[in-house]
Amino acid sequence: MLKFGEWVVKHKLLILILGLAMVVPAAIGYLNTRVNYDILSYLPKDLETMQGQDILKDEFGKGGFSFVVVEGMPDKDVAKVREDLEQVDGVAEVLWYDSLADITIPKEVLPKKVYDFFNAGDTTLMVVFFEDTTSADSTMNAIDEMRKITSKQCFISGMSGITTDMKHLSDSETPMYAIVAVLLTSIVLAITMDSFLIPVFFMIGIGLAIVWNLGTNFFFGEISFLTQALCLVLQLGVTMDYSIFLWHSYKEMQRSYTDRNEAMAHAIASTVTSVVSSSFTTIAGFLAMCFMSFTLGLDLGIVMAKGVVFGVIACVTVLPSMILIFEKAILKTSHRAFLPEFKKIPAFITKHFVLFLTVGLVLLFPAVYGNGHYDVYYNLDSTLPRTLDSVVANDKLSEEYNMNSTHMLLVNSSLDAKACSKMLHEMKQVEGVSFTLSLNSIVGERVPEEVIPKRMTDALRSGDYQLMMIGSEYKVASDEVNDQVTALNEIVKRYDPNGLLIGEAPATKDLIQITAHDFKVVSVLSMAVIFAIILITFRSITLPVILVAVIELAIMINLGLSFYIGDSLPFIASVVIGTIQLGATVDYAILMTTRYKAERSSGKDKHESIGIALATSMSSVIVSALGFFAATIGVAFVSKIGMISSLCMLLSRGAIISMVVVLPVLPSMFLLLDPIICKTSAGFLPKDQTKNNNSQLTPAMQH
After folding, report:
1. Mean model confidence pLDDT for the chain
2. Is 106 exposed, middle or buried (CB count within 10 Å of its CB: 0-12, 13-18, 19+)?
3. pLDDT bucket at 674, cuts 50 / 70 / 90
4. Do 682 and 540 meet the contact criterion of CB atoms below 8 Å apart?
5. Is 698 helix (H, G, I), strand (E, B) or coil?
6. What is the separation of C-alpha 38 from the centre of its chain, rounded to a whole number of angstroms?
7. Which of the four, 2, 12, 558, 670, has the lowest number of CB atoms within 10 Å?
8. Would you say residue 697 has pLDDT above 50?
């Protein structure tokens, strides 16, 4: 590693130029990486709901759909709007009552079922089918174009509208995330470090790593909007420690080496050894998410694990190059450290360790209860601003037509009209179903298909399947709609074993079931992997249990707190916090444990060793936690997207909670369990003392 450090120092200018030059291809890659705004598209492709979406697209040439509520408009104007909407690129079909009958025929003479479907009060309803899926680029472009065509009297509802608004909101907010995160983090670093300028170079180094990471996402084809939004703040938060370590190591090496290049070479060597080991736990936490069958975990896990690797590379190449090149400017902005030395607090904690253990134990019980009872939401539009066009449209659809969600039903086209009518009649009796609509239910089962307008038959029958629609009074992701979906599936399977119920509500029900299992797997896996890393690092059986237990307590307090303050969390919160908070903040515990081991092995007793470990690591832990907090808290307040805001709030809160738990509870556990730790861990006692201890054991005990 020293040779590597010497190479970096020797080629510092070249490295800086190359690092900056890599921004160009990375920026091109970033701009050409598609962003996916549809969370449901990450469900396994073998689910019936996902297979049904493919059939709908292949057989009918349709993907997503939207209801357009038209308010207070004459029929002839509505007909003109319908014609204009059908000309929009990406729109496959628009159904209105003139799809059944000539516009000159009064709507009142239509069958009551048809009239009630298309009309309510002074509003009328159109169904717009898109050529591609809900979140396809062509669909979102079509929504934008439709909004230009329609007046303020038209409201475009549905998941496609929500996805389009989510895209615009996310795209407009993402630059603000970067500005707020960098600004707040720089302020924290300027206060806690010994130079006002060094945070600028930290931000440049980490910023380059973030750009490289985002640029290489091009090779995946696309990433989720959630990954893109969180990537910046998470990579900044979890890799900032590496820059801090390099700077402190460089300052320390300058005491031993007068030549600044030589000091930096040794600092790089020291940093590589420490930072690579430290990054393993963070990378492990992210990679654990890749084992979810809900592939959003794979998306976020791979991108963030890659981001940590880029963060390490930038820290040991670009950052030391910048420090050496601009060292004079850095020195001119030097100042004394504003953080206190924390001399009295470590002594107080070690003296009253029983008190802190008791507090930790007492907090465990409400934390466990709260962790198991906080409210979770799966419906993304529930936390979006109520003024968004799509949210206003959905509210209008709910108020005027009593529709909060719409299911689509695909059954065999050979299923006769009588059986279809009987099946839909049964479905209409299911609690919360507001309407059922099919080709036969519109015109009657006795009407020959030859006399039905071709527009209507083409829209609702194609090849091997016929398409039906079922309206629901219940909101997506509610217990009521999930029970309704179960009941509807039971009915359709009796008439057509291969029938498929699809749509946002059935897909969200699958999401709830799959993620419940996924999150348990990921939680156990992340703990197991980090447990193994700590076991190998310290060659100890007990330390992995102690360190993971302390961070898990902090995680449960963090999530449990949401229950007590009445916060509703996004469904992915538990896995994001469970893996990221564990992987990122367990480093606090590892730092203290490393120093505890060094002091204990040098011959000091447990009180002195643990006191020194706490005193020397306290400042680093506080700076690290405050940096992570600063990187995420601003986004939590700036973002109008509930999922992003909520996750960032949890992450920022988690960093502080981990700090508050680790600093008093971990050394207290060390004091309590020191004899067991020393006996079950390698290198905690001087060699001569280890021999003496072993000589006092009987042969059986030694075995």
Report:
1. 88
2. exposed
3. very high
4. yes
5. coil
6. 13
7. 2
8. no
